[in-house]
Write the structure tokens for this entry.
Amino acid sequence: MTRESWGTRVGFILAAVGSAVGLGNLWRFPWMTAENGGSAFLVVYLGVVLLVGVPGLVAEFVIGRRSERNPAGALYRLSSGSKSWGAVGLFGVVTAIAMLSFYSVVGGWILRYFFASFTGSYFGSAGAYFDAIGFGLPAAGFHVAFLGVTALVVLGGVRDGIERATTLMMPAIVVLLVALAGWAVTRSGAGPGLSFYLDFDAAYLRANFLDVLGAAAGQALFTLSLGVGTMITYASYLGEDHDLAFDGSVIAVLNTAIGVLAGLVVFPLLFATVGGVSGAAAEGGPGALFVGLAGAFSELPLGRVLAVAFFGVVALAALSSAISILEIPVAYLVDEHGIERRTATGALAGLVLVTGSANALSPGLFTVVSGPLVDLMLTAGLVGFLLFVGWVLGSDALAEYSTGAGRYVRSVGPAWLWSVRTILPLFLLATLVANLLALAGVTF
Ligand code: PHE
């Protein structure tokens, strides 16, 4: 059986951007920014994306294209059959299942808000509405619906399913988001929101640098879909003519632009209607988007139309990311166990139906899985992939990096490999330790 592949270069880039652009940009990014001093966070975050995110992305691409395999098979084969490296790859497959188990619950909420926006049923009682629908059987039901759509696309395969769907979805997301941002920033009362978001707050940064750095690092990995093996899997369907570093940079720039754009929608709206982020941020994670914005829409003329457009964008973005998460374990079953795509997708959807429902029924479980657990797993996973590229592949990695690359990109190859071997894993390990200490309640 010949292995599947992307139809076009643009198709691959859009699929990867589709993976990157998701709840991370539209849901997590605004509230991380709000909780970490606004613009101060933005600056550090951009730095981490550039210095850690892009090289990390390229490292995953190198593994994927060289091996033409899912993460577990890739590390196992490229290390000439090392079980330990195979286990590192398998860890990514397990992380993917854990991630999808919470991601699909949030996807279900979005779906529900999308439909509820047509009638405006949460208008007027945004907080109470979220409290009522967030967890429980209906939340599990919407999770299952979201998962079902995700599985249908993955069932269609790489070219006819994933590539076709994401090529349609990405332009729609950008057009809607640009229109929403254009509208939001020109509202009267948008000014304070924009300056909260975009003015540089050096004093805040100086006082909280380590916290901001840790949060920015976690966010950068999450938003670029790093550390699970999504980008390994997507690159495994690539041909040799791609310039991996160039494509990686394009993907990171587009992803960042869409995140920044989302902020331009969210902050002016929150400041112009509900008077700022404090109420939203106090809600913690989910509240920032669901309660804050839902409240904002109810204050606006044409609020329903705007709400439908906004939650439509978020739903599409979440779907294109969920697809890329489910594709990891599917590729694993197809590659390593010779299971048909259809059976593999069905079996995994069945599994996540159960694990996701557990999250939908238990707020406590959801909080642990969606926050610290996934953060730690992504960071640990990426450290593993980087060490693998730097120390096991070594010069082979450089050869793969250079294949299809232009002259300039090739000239920075050695610097890339060096950072992948040394600084990047050290930096990530430091954030890992800092996060563990923070979890254990140690402050410093
Ligand atoms: N990048 C996605 C987002 O921002 C989440 C994701 C993480 C997707 C890891 C795939 C793998 O929502």
